[in-house]
């Protein structure tokens, strides 16, 4: 007890330059896919979504279907064309918003622990995580926060062959 008090008094008497600051341990680095993605400029937005699904190894068929459904709902909106003007090229803007549609569908359709994070998707789209978050909010606003509206449900697993 006395030793602890003596140590505290010594720390208080030391100048600020000699104090050691404790740092939080670093968080683990995000897991990036092993196969490099193709350049987003080569592929159109729909092909880009399907390519990224393949690169990430997502096995469900509902994730790409929902992402394509969301993309097809927002692609003709004037808000999207206006929002893409701020990006250096139209291709990078389209890639960003297509990736945002994919991220929305990943959050809704994939298991939470197995889903890639926004940092990984931003890396694949060659953008920043903050830009991807902003694009996701914009896409959800354009979809009126109803991404499943008009989505044809796949009920083939309910079919029974007699």
List key phrases describing it.
single chain; 162 residues; mainly alpha; Cyclin A, domain 1; 7 helices
Radius of gyration: 23 Å
- What's the CATH superfamily of one domain, by name? Cyclin-like
CATH topology of one domain: Cyclin A, domain 1
Overall pLDDT level: 82
InterPro entries: Cyclin-like_sf
Protein name: Cyclin N-terminal domain-containing protein
Précis, in short:
The chain is an all-alpha fold. It is built from seven helices and no strands.
Explain the overall architecture:
Helix 5 packs across helix 7 (129-142). The chain has a domain at 54-149: Orthogonal Bundle (Cyclin A, domain 1). It starts with a helix and ends in a 20-residue tail after the last helix. It contains seven helices and no strands. It has 162 residues and is mainly alpha-helical. It has helices at 2-13, 45-56, 62-74, 78-83, 90-109, 118-124, 129-142. It is elongated. The model has no long low-confidence stretch (mean pLDDT 82). 25% of the residues are buried.
């Amino acid at each position: 007890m006395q030793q602890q008090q003596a140590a505290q008094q010594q720390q208080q008497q030391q100048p600020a330059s000699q104090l050691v600051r404790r740092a939080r341990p670093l968080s683990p680095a995000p897991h990036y896919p092993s196969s490099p993605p193709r350049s987003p400029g080569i592929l159109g937005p729909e092909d880009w979504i399907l390519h990224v699904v393949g690169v990430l190894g997502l096995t469900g068929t509902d994730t790409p279907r929902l992402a394509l459904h969301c993309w097809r709902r927002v692609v003709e909106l004037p808000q999207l064309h206006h929002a893409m003007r701020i990006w250096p090229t139209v291709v990078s803007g389209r890639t960003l918003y297509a990736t945002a549609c994919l991220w929305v569908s990943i959050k809704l359709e994939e298991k939470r622990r197995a889903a890639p994070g926004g940092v990984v998707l931003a890396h694949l789209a060659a953008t920043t995580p903050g830009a991807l978050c902003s694009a996701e909010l914009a896409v959800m606003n354009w979809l009126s926060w109803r991404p499943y509206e008009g989505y044809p449900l796949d009920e083939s697993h309910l079919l029974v062959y007699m």
